[in-house]
UniProtKB/TrEMBL annotation:
GO terms for cellular component: plasma membrane. Pfam families: LptF_LptG. It is found in: Cell membrane. The chain crosses the membrane at residues 12-33, 59-78, 99-114. Keywords: Cell membrane, Membrane, Transmembrane, Transmembrane helix. InterPro entries: LptG/LptF_permease. Signal peptide: none annotated. This is LptF/LptG family permease. Its main location: membrane. It is a multi-pass membrane protein.
Amino acid sequence: MKKFNKYVLKIYILNLISVLALILILYTFFQIIQHTKYISKYNTSLFDIIIFDLLKIPYSIYQVFPVAGATAVVITILRLIKNNELIAYLSLGGKIKELASLIVILNLFFTGILI
């Protein structure tokens, strides 16, 4: 694997983790707010609702991963464009097809893990 591909993978995985964490925090926060109606309905505590929603995090990851993956791809490509790294890669003979296939294969790998 080329050094540039390793560099892009590193950037992509860091972006994916940060975006996934941010979306997961927001998603869990709004789930907790939505479930506060159960306090009066089932006479439960806020702590129980928080624990319930934290136990649903694996399912939440499964739900928000497609959005996080797409957002991480966009952020990675924008970062490469902003720093003129994509232009340098293309001028040295790199192909967009190779870069795109690298990201698609990585996303398919993560999708296989989630399934």
